[in-house]
Amino acid sequence: MVGNVFAGCEETPGEIMQIDGRPFKQYVGSSTHKTNHVEGVAAMVPTKGKFADILTKLIEGVVSGCSYQGALNLTELRDNPEFIRITNAGLIESHPHDVVLR
Question: In the chain, is it the N or the C terminus that has fewer CB atoms within a 10 Å radius of its CB?
Answer without folding.
Answer: C
